[in-house]
Design brief:
Blueprint lengths: L1 H9 L2 H20 L7 H7 L2 H4 L22 H12 L13 H4 L12 H16 L4 H8 L8 H15 L14 H9 L14 E5 L12 H5 L4 E5 L1 H12 L3 H7 L4 H15 L2 E4 L3 E3 L11 E2 L3 H10 L37 H4 L16 E8 H4 L13 E3 L3 E4 L4 H26 L9 H4 L2 H16 L13 E3 L2 E4 L21 E3 L10 H97 L4 H17 L1
Parallel strand pairs: 1-2, 1-3, 5-9, 6-10
Antiparallel strand pairs: 3-8, 4-11, 6-7, 6-8, 9-10
Helix pairs in contact: 7-15, 7-20, 9-18, 12-13, 12-14, 14-18, 18-20, 21-22
């Protein structure tokens, strides 16, 4: 039956196909004349590159959709690029003389579009979700961390204020275009990947020393291990010239020049140098174990997978941010109407038209080479150092500051620069007030003022603000981690054993540090810390001695008490023994007395018997009186004796 039906309708199959084809063509023609609910200007301005391929030209009959030539890509470029992406040929095949309506019949149709700003707000919401559970008070008390505001928009605004306040000469408008490092900083803070690769890491090692002649001989190993790298030495004069050349006339230069100690200047300089130039900064008492390109490889990815995937989606999109009034801007109700850049209004040209928009080549937060490579200095939590503050650490899980590697324009260094400059102003103000009041002023140590304490705060702040990576997530880690554009080596990687001996290197060894610490002798804060540490040690020793003496006295008292108790017990025992002996003697005397009494009674009976016998004899035999008298006397003697 089925075969009969099939053969019957086979002849009509071509006709049915023609009808379906005609219907499809008719529907297509009607749909091509439909209008979008949004003006095409919105589509041109706010959607991805693929969208432009559906609107290659302008429609002169739609005034609301008119767009200037500067905003609309040429038909050749739009259609040609899409053909190239899809493998349909190259842009040279496009006929520029063909009207746009004929060149692309889908003009006016709204394709399925997810606004870039919607993805961005979704990423921001996810970052805030990852930040949940972060307790600033707990992390300060337990780890010593002082991160500040971890909101990404507030963090970005603060860095821009740092730039305006400290890195621009007073009374001058922001430069246009901005300095080379600022767009890079903003690009790394943006959730959108850049359209061009960010500046690469220069192959240079920078260090500071009072004189080149004072460099430790171990430092030569940097050139031996990495001969193709440039080594830059900065003495005190070179530092001054560099700061003046980069930030001359700014508040930053003024504060830096007036810093009271050279160690503070070298700390601030390394943040400036990495922000502007990049490369490797390392103290002069260091030496590499392996080439810098091998540091931390291979590593484990610890970026949120969702952020990674969304970043890759954004890397193929190009668009400015959707305004809050745009119908497509309601992707995330929790963040509707706000984007990172809309919250920033600091009057600075950021260059975002060339930094934010466009497809990514192979760079950005989740792609390309790391932009910052640091190492944990020590993990006091993992080591069980509950007294980490007393052993000279500023943070429980401290980030190494004597060596780091970076590409220019990283937000961590702008944050570190802003914090150290503000702290320097605070120290100067407090010192002035103390002198005015005739009081002694002891500033904070370099470790806390400009050193690893503040630098650790800046690294942790960037990780949690940009990627939702909490400080506690770095505890107990034994392998290198990649979080966004930051590569973090495990504890000890920048302070491995000496490469000049035969001792076996630890895992992930990158460099050696001599810990010469020549700056400590000139640091009032360190001196005060050491003085207090010495006083504390002396007090602890005195307390320990007093405790030992008290314990000894207590021991002696216990021994005396024990001896007294033993003497008492012995006396009691002796008394009991005497009592027992007396009792036994009494019992023995009683027994003997009883025996004597019994003897007397027996003798008395014998005497009575003798008397009776004597009387009988006396009566019967007079000649026996003499014997009786003798017997009686003997009986009396025995009685007396008893």
């Amino acid at each position: 039956m089925l075969s009969l039906l099939s053969s019957r309708y086979t002849r009509y199959l071509p006709l049915l196909l023609l009808v379906l084809l005609g219907s499809t063509f008719l529907l297509f023609e009607r749909s091509s004349s439909a209008s979008s609910t949004l003006p095409r200007s919105s589509i041109y301005d706010y959607t991805s590159p693929a969208t432009h391929c559906f609107w290659p030209g302008t429609d002169t009959n739609d005034e609301s959709a008119a767009v200037s030539d500067s905003k609309i890509p040429a038909t050749k470029d739009s259609v040609g690029k899409m053909k190239e992406w899809m493998g349909w040929g190259d842009s040279e095949e496009v006929d520029e003389d063909v009207p746009s309506a004929e060149a692309f019949a889908w003009e006016g149709q709204l394709p399925d579009v997810v606004p870039v700003s919607g993805i961005e707000r979704y990423m921001l919401a996810h970052i805030e979700e990852l930040q949940q559970g972060y307790d600033a008070k707990h992390d300060y008390e337990e780890y010593g961390l002082k991160l500040g505001n971890i909101s990404l928009s507030a963090y970005t605004a603060e860095l821009l204020e740092t730039y305006k306040e400290y890195l621009l000469p007073p009374g001058t408008p922001p430069p246009n275009p901005p300095p080379s490092f600022l767009p890079t900083v903003l690009s790394r803070l943006s959730l959108r990947p850049p359209i061009t690769p960010l500046p690469p890491r220069p192959d240079q090692v920078m260090t500071t020393e009072k004189s080149v002649d004072d460099l430790p001989w171990q430092f030569q190993r940097w050139k031996e291990i990495m001969p193709e790298w440039e080594i830059k030495y900065f003495d005190d004069k070179a530092l001054k010239n560099w700061v003046k050349g980069m930030f001359g006339g700014t508040k930053a230069e003024e504060i830096w020049t007036n810093l009271p100690r050279q160690v503070l200047k070298t700390d601030v300089f390394r943040y400036m140098a990495m922000l502007v130039e990049g490369g490797i900064y390392t103290d002069s008492d260091t030496a590499p174990i392996i080439h810098a390109d091998q540091w931390g490889h291979p590593y484990n990815h610890r970026t949120s997978p969702l952020l990674t995937h969304l970043s890759r989606i954004l890397s193929i999109a190009t668009s400015p941010h959707l305004p809050s009034s745009h119908p497509l801007s309601s992707f995330s109700p929790d963040h509707a109407g706000t984007t990172i850049d809309e919250e920033l209004d600091v009057g600075i040209s950021t260059g975002k038209s060339t930094i934010y928009d466009g497809p990514l080549v192979d760079d950005g937060a989740e792609l390309g080479q790391p932009s910052l490579v640091v190492s944990v200095e020590s993990d006091a939590i993992d080591f069980g150092w509950h007294n980490w503050r007393e052993v000279g650490l500023s943070r429980a899980v401290q980030i190494t500051q004597w060596t780091f590697m970076a590409r220019p324009g990283h937000p961590v260094f702008l944050d570190a620069l802003g914090r150290t400059l503000r702290k320097s102003e605070e120290m100067a103000r407090k010192e002035k007030e103390a002198k005015k009041n005739g009081k002694e002023f002891i500033p904070e140590t370099a470790l806390e003022w400009t050193g690893p304490g503040v630098f650790s705060d800046c690294v942790y702040r960037y990780l949690i603000s940009r990627y939702g990576f909490k400080p506690e997530d770095l505890i107990h880690k034994k392998d290198p981690l990649r979080v966004g554009d930051v590569l973090i080596l495990p504890a000890g990687s920048y302070s491995s054993v000496s490469p000049f001996g035969d001792e076996q290197q630890r895992n992930w060894a990158a460099s050696w540090h001599g810990f010469f610490g020549r700056w400590r002798g000139a640091d009032p804060g360190v001196q005060e810390f050491e003085r207090l540490k010495k006083l504390k040690k002396e007090a602890e020793e005195a307390e320990k001695k007093a405790k030992e003496e008290a314990e000894e006295a207590e021991r002696e008292a216990k021994e005396a008490e024990q001896k007294a108790k033993e003497a008492y017990d012995q006396a009691d025992k002796s008394a009991q023994e005497v009592e027992e002996k007396a009792k036994e003697a009494a019992e023995e005397a009683g027994r003997k007395a009883q025996e004597a009494s019994d003897t007397v009674e027996a003798l008395e009976e014998e005497v009575e018997k003798a008397k009776e016998m004597a009387e009988g004899i006396s009566d019967g035999q007079d000649n026996g009186s003499g014997d009786f008298t003798e017997i009686r006397e003997e009986a009396e003697d025995e009685k007396m004796s008893a």
